[in-house]
Structure formats: structure tokens, C-alpha cells
Amino acid sequence: MNSDPQSSDRDYLRTVQYRTADNLNARIQIHKRFSTSIQTWEDFIFEHLPDLGAKRLLALGCGNATQWRANRQRFAPDATIVLTDLSEGMLTEARPELEGDKRFTLLCMDASRLEFEDASFDFVTANHMLYHVPDIAQTLAEVARVLKPGGGLMAATNGANYMLDLDQLLTEFWPAYGGLHTMSLKFNLENGADQLRQWFGQVEKKLYSGDLWVTEALPLVDYVFSTPRVQQLIPLDQREPMRAFFQARINRSGGILIHKETGLFLANQPKKV
Q: Which of 192, 236, 195, 224 is nearest to 27 (CA)?
């Protein structure tokens, strides 16, 4: 199965998929409301960040900065956190809340062409975004360039079978459909370590434990129609038939179980070229 080409098309991502935060918010909500994990994804992410006292952190593809806005109390007063995203529309939602916080700077920027000096950050995060960039190697080279000696990268992504249960349901509903989870195939839990080792001397994988038990049909429909492949293949007039299809499954079993494969890589010892 090939990765959906739209998932790394800069113009599509900037002007359609992430023109505003609406699509991202629909995806965030399904995970927040219906996760089976006792640990939130945010807690999992932040437990792997270093102590940011007087340190500089760069976030690539921060989106609407939901995780950063909700966790400002975690950071020391003298931390410097630079949040970047390809889409100004995504940053628009975050600016009113963060621009008054001197620790945060928000910049619209292409991750493959970082506008920073060499060795200017202690740590970089890439939360579910590396599979969106057209040239992952170029982006990782830029990350290694802007990291200080001894700096590190946290890169979150999904597994190859991420939400396969939902794929199967959608194919049953709409046989022409061909793969929700293809978006992350360019950089996933199976192939990500090999790509990172080209630019980092040490790479470690951490897996997140938790699935989805969805008990309401409409949020799942919203999630599905936020994804590029569904927007491309399934007409909007199918929202109500899809809601009824999902609701029938929920009525039968009490909910819809969707297995997730999610985690992150911690990469250290950046290699300079």
C-alpha cells in the first residue's frame, strides 16, 4: 500500500487540509474523548521532553499548538519555545493565547528550510508531522543542523496498521475506499528508526498504550471526514448514511473498538554534515 500523495503536498496541506484548525481539532477530539488509555497522549509526550529550564526548544508542525497551550505550566519561566507550522491558518488559533507569554514564539515556516542558525536549539519535537514533509531526509538534516551538540529530537508517529479496524469499516461502508492509515507510511514506527539513524547516533522507540472505544457515531463521522483520503473519495452527502452505519454497529456492540499503533522516537547525538 502506498502513502497518500496528498499527505506531503505542501500546497494542499497549507491551503486545504490545514488552512484552518478544523480538521485537526476533529482528530484531536476523537482521541481525547474515546481513548482507553489511563495516560493521556499529552502526558506521554511531555514525560519524554527534557527539563526546559533556560533551554531552547523548537517544535516543528505544531498545528494549532493545542498541546503547548494546555501545558504551559510545565515549562520554566526562562525556557524558550519556538513553535512553527507551515500553515499560518493553524497558528492563528494559537496566537491569542500564547503571544502574551514571553517564553513562546510562533513562526510560519517550512520544516525542510529552517531559518535558524546552526546549533541554536537544545531539543526539537516533530509530533505526527514528519510523514507530511516531501523530503524527510532534508528535514532531518535541518534538524541535526540546528541542534546543539548533545541535543535531541522527539518524533511521534503511527504504526503501519494504525486504526486498521476503521479502514475495514469504511471499506465495508464504501467499497471504493482504500486506506485511512496510509498517510503515515512514509515515516512510521516500522521504518522511522532507520531514517533517523542517518542523522542521529542513538535512536530509541517508545510505544504508547491505548486504543479507541467509540460510543458515539457523529464524532467518528467528523473524524473520518477530516482526513484527506475520505475527503477525496467519499462524497459529503454520505455523512448521514455513514453516521447511521456507525450507529448500528454501536447499538449492536455498545461501541466500536479501533486499535491504535502510536509512539515516538527519541533521537540523540545529532550528526553534522
A: 224
